[in-house]
């Protein structure tokens, strides 16, 4: 069966990430700053417990990032000797390139982009899990929505329809296809189009698309405007999926990695037990309307990775040609 045009375009877009970060690798090996070289060669003194270590985390201005801000505000990173700066000013591709160049120490990256990058030989390693979809309940942090009068009432009805996603050939498209397949529909008949999350609702209301794939806070916003959930695509295909992982360069200092991972584990554990505190951060850091911040569904957090759900996604990525060979799941353990 031939590959649909949307998947071909999506694969090219995802592979551009690998090309960009590989290019960054080629230019990051030499340092023109002798002071930096001297500091690097000093080795262990940079990670001694008595010394505060500056760390920059590249991430996105989304609901899940509230957990990182929480760790800074509560002083948990500081207790581990880390002076953390959270950089939300650039996109994922640029952040990964900066990580390989050691301009950023760690970056949150979605599972599919990481699989593609590793498949292409980009020298990255997994520092741990970060955000997760829900494993139980009737709702989740990822959903496909449609108008009430669309005739779309479930995943199978998405076959033959136009569905907006933020990125072609992503965790969204893979899990929507699987949800449709599981419901008895033919995912090959879906026409995926790429639209930014904030612009999807406008496209739905204008009739430009039949359904939209949203995450929070956009699910709650869309529901408030009358859209109805027709599929909880993560829950229907890979419940509890590790949606974002914490990633660093393959040559990251092992002591830095160990200290950061220990701190992150404590941060995510504490953040997961203080939902009210996270919602306050959404108002403060994301300038979210307080009423909306009270209603949005929050991600689950853990440095432990749900390997079962991630294996499902890895299999789908291979089946649809996003990676050239089966994903080595040991890289995520």
UniProtKB/TrEMBL annotation:
Localisation per UniProt entry: Periplasm
Any one Pfam family match given in the protein's UniProt record, by short name: NMT1
GO cellular component: periplasmic space
Chief site of localization: periplasm
Keywords, sorted A to Z: Signal
Signal peptide region: 1-30
Domain (SsuA/THI5-like) ranges: 69-271
Assigned protein family: Belongs to the bacterial solute-binding protein SsuA/TauA family.
Protein name per its UniProtKB record: Transporter substrate-binding domain-containing protein
